[in-house]
Specification:
mainly alpha, 11 helices
């Protein structure tokens, strides 16, 4: 190397990433998860290690993010940038896990017995996701989310390394003030009654007849995370890489579902005035993002889509 000139960092980083990716693929093909049978790697298949190892890695990141966020929140409050940045990153990882790694087509690559075990985790994961993304608004809430994330990370780590699944024992009760993202003034003379059942147990924050901002956050967070990963992968391995195309397809599915069901003109028009003002801005931007993804035929175009998704996410991530 020429001692008088700095190396091309970007080119070196891309080359090292390619070597690292190839090494991961070679190891995944040669070393199946303990207690499992390896699955052949193809354009639309992953090994067991790909699915479970990736979910484990991301949940460890999530647990780390929430623990660090909690340390800041206890001293500096929930609005501190260090808290918000870590919670933002965790939300993206959670959405990526649910909407890319834990989808039925990926779980179908697992042996039947193992798939059944992993599917047993999904109801608990959804409950964790609901609280983490929509109801973590105080340091006490964050402590619950952080503890539950740690339990999930430990459970997945144990499963990946030993093949033994231990379902995490998540918190069942939440303070009443954190079970709804909105504060409603109740007259002192009012008679308190049991809350009606939610429109959806899967997404209890969802309403049947109005645009759903919490639902949109989940779709946008997952799309942003997927596009960031796709852009990095496309830059290193090219547009023909299977994971790039899978993530682009996933984003189109997420945004199409969002625009066709949650953010329709009728639901936006029926939304409360404050939510409508936000949706009037982010819905067109989301449609533009979808159009960009559909026509992304180069690494540069994927990076542009990721940048657009980041802008949409910035507009909606803190709205409750």
């Amino acid at each position: 190397m020429d001692q008088g000139r700095a190396p091309d960092y970007d080119a070196l980083r891309a080359e090292m990433h390619q070597h690292y990716t190839q090494l991961q693929q070679d190891l995944a093909a040669a070393l199946p998860v303990a207690g499992t049978t390896a699955v052949a790697v193809g354009a639309s298949q992953s090994t067991n290690l790909d699915v479970l190892g990736s979910v484990r890695d991301q949940m460890v990141e999530v647990s780390s993010d929430y623990k660090e966020a909690l340390r800041f929140a206890r001293e500096d409050g929930m609005a501190h940038p260090e808290v918000k940045d870590r919670m933002d990153h965790a939300a993206q990882r959670i959405a990526d896990m649910e909407r890319f790694w834990l989808t039925p087509d990926r779980l179908a690559t697992l042996p039947p017995d193992q798939r059944k075990e992993v599917e047993a985790l999904l109801p608990k994961f959804r409950r964790f996701r609901q609280h983490a993304l929509n109801f973590t608004v105080t340091p006490d809430d964050l402590a619950v989310t952080s503890e539950d994330a740690g339990k999930f990370a430990t459970s997945l780590q144990t499963y990946v390394t030993t093949g033994a699944l231990v379902l995490p024992d998540l918190h069942k009760g939440r303070p009443k003030t954190t079970e709804t993202p909105r504060t409603v003034d109740v007259p002192e003379t009012a008679t308190l009654t049991a809350d009606p059942p939610p429109y959806s147990q899967y997404a209890p924050e969802m309403s049947v007849d109005v645009g759903c901002l919490p639902c949109g956050r989940a779709h946008i967070a997952g799309s942003f995370a997927a596009l960031q990963s796709a852009a990095e992968k496309a830059q290193a391995s090219g547009m023909t890489d299977g994971e790039v195309q899978q993530r682009l397809a996933m984003v189109q599915e997420e945004l199409t579902a969002l625009m066709n069901y949650d953010w329709t003109p009728e639901k936006i028009a029926a939304s409360p005035a404050d939510e409508k003002a936000i949706l009037d801005q982010v819905a067109p931007a989301t449609q533009k993002l979808l159009d960009t993804v559909k026509t992304a035929h180069s690494p540069e175009a994927v990076q542009d889509a990721a940048s657009q998704a980041g802008q949409v996410w910035a507009q909606i991530k803190d709205v409750t």
